[in-house]
Amino acid sequence: MILVFVETDATGATEVSRETVTFARTLAERSDGPLHAVIVGDRPAGVLDQLGGYGVSEIHHATGDGVAAYGGAAWAAAVQAAVSATDADVVLAPGTPRGMEVAAHLATRVDVPMAANVVGVSDGTGADGAPLRVARQVVGGSVLEEMVLPERPAVLTVAGHAVVDEPGAPATAALREFSPEIAEADLVARVVSIEAAEADLSSAALTSARVVVGAGRGAGSADGFDAAAELAELLGGALGVSRVVTSLGWRPHHEQIGQTGSRISPDVYIPCGISGAIQHWAGCASSKTIVAINTDENAPMVTKANYAVIGDMHEVVPAVNAEIKRRRG
Amino acid sequence: MTNVLVCIKRVPDAAGEVTLTADAQAVDARFVGFTISAHENCAVELAVRIASQEGSGTATGGTATVLTLGTDDAVEQLRTALGLGCSAAVLIEADPAGYGPADVAREIAAVVERGAYDLVLLGNDAADTGDFQVGIRLAHALGRPVVNGASTVEVSQEEGTADTAIARVAGPDGVETYQVPMPAVVTVLEGGVEPRYPTISGRMKAKKVKIETVAPQREPSGSGRVRLLLPPAQPSAVEVLGEGPDAAKAVVDLLEKLGVAR
Ligand SMILES: Cc1cc2nc3c(=O)[nH]c(=O)nc-3n(C[C@H](O)[C@H](O)[C@H](O)COP(=O)(O)OP(=O)(O)OC[C@H]3O[C@@H](n4cnc5c(N)ncnc54)[C@H](O)[C@@H]3O)c2cc1C
Ligand SMILES: Nc1ncnc2c1ncn2[C@@H]1O[C@H](COP(=O)(O)O)[C@@H](O)[C@H]1O
Fold it and tell me: For residues A155 and A103, is the Cβ–Cβ distance under 8 A?
């Protein structure tokens, strides 16, 4: 029995959750066992059909005051109730901040190890009680670790965009609603208020664009994005950035490409001043053509790209913009 | 008074090319420097701010103690944190290689229970193992609340009410606020604060601080590591279009060929 903690938004299961369910389905098929999902809090319309289409036969939906606002401990208590009810052998969560947090709380509560950022299962299915052996990303993704999870349930998170999101045959999952009892202590740390960001938070423009111009630390400062943004506009595309850029507060998070951002698959991706760390690559690997602009000819983004210009983005990008405008007359 | 304990981990600086040891159990650190993660740098910054009352809410000051579980070499990282404004340091002397996140959390918990720490700050995840767990396991062992992935942490101390930690987290729908009674545990995600640089006088002071060394309480149960692997190197097939702004023509030719320039 395999159980997946699925994160949702208004439209249904989130992208990394769908990837995680796809990964879990392969595991379930190998063990010839059922695949269930657990959802906490709001249940978006259509999610029974959506996850049914990924091979999920039952959805455990935790409701009630205790889980209405997000809190890592409370939500993990809800997932733990579903684990007990289903006697799950393996519990998976998406490798997102909340997925990591809920899985870590769960593993702590049931006193088992947890493997974070798993990208593959090298041995075992989890079903036969034998240890599960997984491969996971460590050292910022530059190294893989083989790790054993000897105990049951095996708890793991799946690295974002490391597996393909792939629905199976259309089906509808059965719904089991429950309202878990949440202990007072588990309610102490939870979200008390949310300040919605003013700007449009959606990454839809980025993920659907035919052309994406990327900009990383090479932009130099919050004021270093004008030329890249202009190029994106000239090409009718969108601007995307690396995590360094969002961490430094230069650009908003919804523009971030990568494992902990959006996954893009445009016809052309033009990363400027982005080194091409594995977590960034996870979000742009399915671009059809990559044209890198970087001062370092040995940057991974350059060696992995189809085409490259070696140079300062603050000189190259304005020159490209000028050339496009010149040809358009 | 708020007494803060901040937990850091010495890790190889893996910014360049990474190689493994012959037994595939660790990153070969012979030719690289050592550091702590960006998250932990921010945790140290927040600890120092709270202890010194700089932009730390209504806190009335206190102490910042830095802790690591590591070998004697990790004193280097403890001294760096002392140079930034921490006033005391604890080394749990052990080789972290054999320690899983549950082991590390148990050892930190023993130190927290001996001291009187109101707030324990950690990184969101360690730069090498990336387990995403020590803070949560620690909080559980101590029976304290935990907030994860905080960009900022402030302490609110007002007459007549219990002291609370106010943490802000960048959540999926905007900036989330958590308000938890202390003692509490908070893990920090880089980005909310700009870590300071050490000053000369800070470094001088740091040299004089005596580091408290303690032995681990128990044998570790292990991390489950079988071995490390390097992802296979991909041969490069890149075509360099040119260097500098002169390459602009070639770029636009290519974009036209790909059908995206008009
Ligand atoms: C768990 C985890 C999740 C992560 N998730 C993500 C994610 O979703 N997305 C992501 O992007 N990262 C992610 N990261 C971070 C990732 O490891 C890298 O740190 C990050 O992608 C680096 O950003 P960068 O390429 O902008 O900066 P750097 O690595 O600093 O690279 C800057 C590049 O710009 C070049 N450059 C400098 N100046 C110029 C100039 N003037 N003109 C042209 N080129 C120049 C340099 O040669 C270099 O190649 C994650 C890390 C972890 C541990
Ligand atoms: N050996 C250690 N010594 C001190 N703190 C540690 C150690 N290992 C992990 N931590 C702390 O726990 C955080 C999360 O680590 P992890 O759960 O291993 O990803 C790190 O950012 C550190 O703050």
Answer: yes
CB A269 within 8 A of CB A307: no
Are the Cβ atoms of A267 and B259 closer than 8 angstroms? yes
Of B18, B146, B181, the CB nearest to A142: B18
| Residue A81 maps to a domain | yes
Measured between alpha carbons, how far is residue B157 from residues A162, B43, B50, B120, B182 in Å? 45, 20, 11, 17, 10
Same domain membership, residue A213 and residue A147: no
Distance of CA B204 to the CA centre of its chain: 24
ipTM of the complex: 0.92
Q: Answer for the pair B139, B145: CB distance below 8 angstroms, yes or no.
A: yes
The rounded percent of chain A whose pLDDT value lies above 90 is: 84
Q: Do A243 and A95 belong to one domain?
A: no
Q: Which residue has the tokens 């075509």?
A: B239
A314 touches B: beta carbon within 8 Å? no
DSSP B27: B
Give dist(CA A110, CA A90) in Å, integer.
Answer: 13
Phi, psi of B14 (to 5 degrees): -95, 30
pLDDT in tens, B140-176: 999 999 999 999 999 998 888 889 999 999 888 889 9
| A277: containing domain | 201-328
What's the whole-model pTM score?
Answer: 0.91
